[in-house]
């Protein structure tokens, strides 16, 4: 039964309890990701009533155009956010890399779950099994719809050719296997792992070959910022190290004003309470690039241990009131400082040209 904006159910004993509706894209991977979050919530709150609501997004519908050409930052998120705004769902599960660095007013990321492998993976056509990008024959065609991947790999493997490939994971693998159009495709290792397709990964691309996208490999739960009870409920899913890494990555991207339509890549690491961020920008063919690394301390400050953290503070869209505020501030600052360093060396010019060339393609 609906009562105001919320949904309730009555059990056999007449007890009424609220149902929390989780919005998700309809693709198989999105459902697997959403189910995994729902399971975690049920483990933590066994009494919880959850209902999963699947919906199609613009990015799922426009399959014949390269993502970077559509020019919409919230391709895979807008419809889900509309449902959140209309109180049709109460929380939404996303791949964090699909979420713009600036969220619409009234929304926040209430949980960033432990990151899985953030790197990209090479999936070969069955006839090339055992090869790597380096050993594929000259002029082999590699499928990727990501400007970031293509820019880095063109520079690193000049003997290969790169072509757009769209569709969900199932569709892309089908296109690879059933036709002779591609020698290999590049996909996120985390998505392949969640689908149980690790056996198709022939090569994981390390940072020397291809740095990853901002937020890649992490799941995020988006909620209405005013729903403090839901924010509190999902906040236990936050993974502190992932939160800090993703805050610094998102701050870097936001400062560069990068989205799907420009090649921006990152690599983060935490060692001995130090957060390391490597960030780079590329021309479309990878011939022009800027790359730098900076670091900051993320050790909890003595003074911040007892400090009340303002529940409503968002950092690049993330609300994480149980994680040291000082560490979050320093992570955000690191991203901004690194972006400004690249901008001072000419990053804006590289990205502007990349954007113009991409628009003209």
UniProtKB/TrEMBL annotation:
UniProt EC number: 2.5.1.61
Domain Porphobilinogen deaminase C-terminal intervals: 244-299
Cofactors demanded by this protein: dipyrromethane
Residue ranges of every copy of the Porphobilinogen deaminase N-terminal domain listed in the record: 20-230
Function (record text): As part of the heme biosynthetic pathway, catalyzes the sequential polymerization of four molecules of porphobilinogen to form hydroxymethylbilane, also known as preuroporphyrinogen. Catalysis begins with the assembly of the dipyrromethane cofactor by the apoenzyme from two molecules of porphobilinogen or from preuroporphyrinogen. The covalently linked cofactor acts as a primer, around which the tetrapyrrole product is assembled. In the last step of catalysis, the product, preuroporphyrinogen, is released, leaving the cofactor bound to the holodeaminase intact.
Subunit composition and interactions: Monomer.
Family to which this protein belongs: Belongs to the HMBS family.
Record-given protein name: Porphobilinogen deaminase
């Amino acid at each position: 039964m609906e009562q105001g904006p919320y949904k309730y159910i009555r059990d056999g004993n007449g007890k009424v309890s609220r149902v929390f509706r989780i919005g998700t894209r309809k693709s198989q991977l999105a459902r697997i990701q959403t189910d995994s979050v729902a399971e975690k919530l049920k483990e933590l709150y066994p009494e919880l009533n959850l209902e999963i609501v699947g919906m199609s997004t613009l990015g799922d519908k426009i399959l014949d155009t390269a993502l970077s050409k559509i020019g919409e930052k919230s391709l895979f998120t807008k419809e889900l956010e509309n449902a959140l705004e209309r109180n049709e769902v109460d929380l939404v599960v996303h791949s964090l890399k699909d979420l713009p660095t600036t969220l619409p007013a009234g929304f926040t990321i209430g949980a960033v779950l432990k990151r899985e492998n953030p790197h990209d993976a090479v999936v070969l056509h069955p006839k090339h099994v055992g090869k790597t990008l380096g050993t594929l024959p000259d002029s082999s065609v590699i499928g990727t719809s990501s400007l970031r991947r293509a820019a880095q790999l063109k520079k690193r493997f000049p003997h290969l050719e790169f072509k757009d490939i769209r569709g969900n994971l199932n569709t892309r693998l089908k296109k690879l296997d059933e036709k002779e159009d591609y020698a290999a495709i590049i996909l996120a290792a985390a998505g392949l792992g969640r689908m149980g397709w690790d056996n198709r990964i022939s090569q994981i691309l390390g940072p020397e070959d291809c740095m990853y996208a901002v937020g890649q490999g992490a799941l995020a739960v988006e909620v209405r910022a005013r729903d403090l009870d839901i924010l509190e409920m999902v906040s236990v899913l936050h993974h502190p190290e992932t939160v800090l890494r993703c805050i610094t990555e998102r701050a870097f991207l936001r400062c560069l004003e990068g989205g799907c339509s420009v090649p921006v890549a990152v690599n983060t690491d935490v060692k001995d309470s130090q957060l390391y961020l490597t960030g780079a920008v590329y021309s479309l063919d990878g011939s022009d690039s800027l790359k730098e690394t900076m670091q900051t301390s993320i050790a909890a400050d003595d003074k911040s241990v007892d400090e009340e953290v303002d529940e409503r503070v968002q950092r690049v869209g993330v609300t994480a009131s149980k994680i040291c505020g000082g560490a979050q501030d320093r992570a955000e600052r690191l991203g901004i400082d690194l972006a400004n360093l690249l901008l001072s060396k000419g990053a804006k010019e590289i990205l502007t040209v990349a954007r113009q060339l991409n628009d003209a393609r």
